[in-house]
Amino acid sequence: MAFAPMGPEASFFEVLDRHRASLLAELRRAGGEPPGGGTRLASRFEDSVGLQMVSHCTTRKIKSDSPKSVQKFALILKILSMIYKLVQSNTYATKRDIYYTDSQLFGNQTIVDNIISDISCMLKVPRRSLHILSTSKGLIAGNLRYIEEDGTKVNCTGRATAVAVPSNIQGIRNLITDAKFVLIVEKDATFQRLLDDNFCNKMSPCIMVTGKGVPDLNTRLLVKRLWATFHTPVFTLVDADPHGIEIMCIYKYGSMSMSFEAHNLTVPAVRWLGLLPSDLKRLNIPKDSLIPLTTRDQMKLDSILKRPYVTCQPFWRKEMEIMADSKMKAEIQALTFLSSDYLSRVYLPNKLRFGGWI
């Protein structure tokens, strides 16, 4: 018995397919035929769902009236109150973020880590349900299968949680996908929210990657490998601020520190999907959801505008000039003003369907 895929109907991807065709035509004109090394599938993979809970929790008694544990009790209440605010505002933080809210109070990072594990165990929920994320670099989700160097078979498809980016990108083999696009997500919190919203299945077939901020080497190598193998369109979803633009430029153009290896790391075909500064006005995002540019932001923006490759990107320049003129920036979470799931339900699907990238 055949089952219909969960993703959108074929007509949804018409603009994406034309975009890919134009990218391939550009490659052929430049003399770069798509290399082999992977298999594109015509059908989607089977789905599997599961949540993993912290497995090494221990049970302790903490009493508010005990001199030995009163401080620990107070710290637990402090972190519980922060978790409550995160859940209420539908935002995320890392353990490192929690520690730096009051480093003098907590004393050291290990104390925070242990308390968060205790809370997770006490409430019998995974840490992500507390809206507290891990800080390991590089995650991938979506329609992708491959074999790692040691023979381990990895299937990223249909999972409720993401797969860590392999430590040896060169060693992976037998990559298989039918993805229509690769979405690079700047921040882990946004990536996790898209996973929670079942974005990869709703937009199937697709691949989603995050480098959790400034990408590490393996995340960049993976994106490059996907592009070189499949020539699937690659899009970035970053905050509408100079830092987000900088991260996007690293994927597309590389970084100064790794410029000697740019040919192995950069993907010139990367397109800016969002969050565009012009989107803020178009969507009537209120000013109190925006953030004023700091002096450091303005210096970073001026620096990017002066880079030679920006002259080849007039639409990028125009967006950055909008930001500079308004002297405001915005995080992707500003879209929650419209609705809590606006990003995954409306913003991204419309951008992908109608070609809203630059």
TrEMBL record:
GO molecular function list: ATP binding; DNA binding; DNA topoisomerase type II (double strand cut, ATP-hydrolyzing) activity; metal ion binding
Name of a matching Pfam family: TOP6A-Spo11_Toprim
Annotated Meiosis-specific protein Spo11 domain residues: 2-43
Tagged with keyword Metal-binding: yes
Domain Topoisomerase 6 subunit A/Spo11 TOPRIM: 181-352
Entry's localization field: Nucleus
Residues forming the catalytic site: 100
E.C. designation(s): 5.6.2.2
Domain of life: Eukaryota
Spo11/DNA topoisomerase VI subunit A N-terminal domain span: 71-132
GO cellular component, one term: nuclear chromosome
Gene Ontology BP term (one): meiotic DNA double-strand break formation
Swiss-Prot/TrEMBL cofactor(s): Mg(2+)
Protein family membership: Belongs to the TOP6A family.
Identification of the protein by name: DNA topoisomerase (ATP-hydrolyzing)
Source organism (scientific name): Microcebus murinus
Organism ancestry: Eukaryota, Metazoa, Chordata, Craniata, Vertebrata
